[in-house]
Every structure is written in structure tokens, then in C-alpha cells.
Amino acid sequence: MTGARDHDGFRDLLGPYALGAVDEAERDQLEAHLQGCAACRWDLARLVEAADKLPSPPRPPDELWRRIVAEVRASEDQPREQGHG
Length: 85
Prior knowledge:
Blueprint: H1 7-18, H2 24-36, H3 38-52, H4 62-77
Helix pairs in contact: 1-2, 1-3
């Protein structure tokens, strides 16, 4: 997910960032935001502390991982269906 973000958008990235699960553009944007946001820096420190205590899940083979990432990114580009009711 790229583009302009507000404060809440950056806060939503803190967890994935702490787990190393953001792309380069997201990382760069968040790190720029963190320079001027003490609240997000504090929240990130708590998340990193918690993430460090998590066991590392096994990572799938590289080719499978690339396919998973490609599928997730492709699904993000698809319009989401909204329920009618």
C-alpha cells in the first residue's frame, strides 16, 4: 500500500513494520513519519519489544514465498466486493 497516509495510516503500519513485513516504500514513509511523531515511536518500541518475544515461524521456500507475496499484492489491486443487504 503506497500513497499519502494520515497519522492513523502510519499507526496501522507499526505492527507490520515491527515484524519486518512492510515493503521498501512503506518503510521509508513510516520512518520519515517516525522522525516527527513521538507517540508512534513509543508505540513502535512496545511492538518491537513484543515482537522480539515471538517465536519465529518457519519461512516457506523462496519460490513459494514469492508466489504468496504476488498473490497478496494482486488481491490488493482488485476492487473489493461490498455486501448488499
